[in-house]
Amino acid sequence: FHTAKYLIGVCDPKRCGEGGxxxxxxxxxxxxxxxxxxxxxxxxxxxxxxxxxxxxxxxxDVEGFxxxxxxxxLTHPSSYPGSANFTPDCYVATPYANDQDGPVKRDKQGRPxxxxxYPFAVPESIGLYGFTHCRGVCYYPAGPEDTFRANLAGxxxxxxxxxxxxxxxxxxxxxxxxxxxxxxKVIACAEEKWNCxxxxxxxxxxxxxxxxxxxxxxxxxxGETTTLVVENARNGELEKMTWHTNYKPYWDCEKxxxxxxxxxxxxxxxxxxxxxxxxxxxxxxxPGGIGRIWEFPLxxxxxxxxxxxxxxxxxxxxxxxxxxxxAKDRMKHPAVCGExxxxxxxxxGHSEERAAELALP
Length: 361
Prior knowledge:
With 361 residues, the protein is mostly beta strands. The protein has 2 domains: 1-214, no CATH class; 225-337, Immunoglobulin-like. The protein is 5% helix and 27% strand. It is built from 3 helices and 17 strands. It has helices at 205-209, 263-266, 350-357, and strands spanning 27-31, 37-40, 54-57, 91-92, 115-120, 129-136, 158-165, 184-188, 225-230, 239-240, 257-259, 269-276, 289-297, 304-309, 312-319, 325-335, 340-343. The strands form 4 sheets. It has a 6-stranded mixed β-sheet with strand order 10-11-16-15-12-13, with no helix packed on it. A 4-stranded antiparallel β-sheet has the order 1-2-3-4, with no helix packed on it. A 4-stranded antiparallel β-sheet has the order 5-6-7-8, with no helix packed on it. A hairpin with an 8-residue loop joins β5 and β6 (129-136). The longest helix has 8 residues, at 350-357. The two termini are 28 Å apart.
């Protein structure tokens, strides 16, 4: 997706970023009242992460996405049905942002334009959609100079706030300038002493979308539990660590996740651990204290259905027959009331299956 052409006259021509964005693995889909799908290419639950760029699609324009195995031209949109890249009407809604690990774009005053992510639906009377905006350089491997206000033209190094995109009276109201109050406005965490990583608009489905809730839709004001369905808990992409007496226990790993090299053979249950984010006493768990714990044994095929209280932050652990944590997902996840989350893994046979359905060669 091209981005640079929308920023002419806004960003510094010498510091206008990579010029494009790639939907490598779409995440965090949300349907908006306008009928568009909003999504990002970085997983939503990583609240320590970098975010990136918000993209939009109409439901009728999404054919699907697949791994490179079956898609020779993976990085290019295609108009060929069944190609798994058939996305003719998708576009970047926040071209000012940056979804790479390189330096963020700068405006003509030298201010970093930041990043965007985590879109959510809001009533049309409020705006087009809500999202998280990050001011500053926002994660990329920054040098010491990027911690000084003078080098950032007065902007903070990394500060996250919740915004609403505003209707500019044109089709595809892209946000090209995060400093323009006519394009977006801050609705939470405006002060620099606060950070907001993610948000949802708390209202009924009727209030947000202007129509009765379909049977399969989620109303975030209903229910007291969340449900996590895992098709095979033995399939995972955690960095394997060779055990050594000098290593920290797996549940205390400092990466996004880690595991015993043979964890898939040893795991017998999945543990949900409640995280208390406002707990300030230092613990080996890291930031936040530990609350309640729930354990769910695996079925023979590795599947497991977990239902537990909502309105909490939680992490996932795999445990062995002795109750020892042998696999750890360090990222904190939000438990949303009434939501059913399914973990299925990547599906790279999409294009072949769709080609067969469409009777294509």
